[in-house]
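Bug report

Summary: structure tokens for UPF0145 protein GGQ90_000341 differ between web form and batch submission.
Environment: batch mode, default settings.
Steps: 1) Submit the sequence below via batch. 2) Compare with the web form result.

Sequence submitted:
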Amino acid sequence: MTDIIVSTTSRLEGRPAQDYLGIVTGEVIVGANLFRDLFASVRDIVGGRSGAYEDVLQRARSEAIEEMQGNARKLGANAIVGVDLDYEVIGANGSMLMVSASGTAIRY
């Protein structure tokens, strides 16, 4: 399986785009119960930061990027440029967190 290059820049240095294949996305939604469970453990909070909470955000971000890469791979891309990551609280009473990744799939 070929690795898909992911970049927040609009182009890749030394690898000009031959084909622009379209916008690709990846989304992950994490339920609030998970966040409540994480905050219940005060031991995880060190220096005002929650390691467990940061781990969940990292995992959600990685999964969103992996899903976006999979969608780009289906289009025959070998890179994604202009990547943007967004975090949004959704659901009734802000009960869920959505992490979304989007960018333009290209073939260089």
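Above is the batch result. After comparison, the two runs are identical; trailing whitespace caused the diff. The chain has two helices and six strands. The beta strands are 5-6, 19-31, 45-46, 49-50, 79-90, 96-107.
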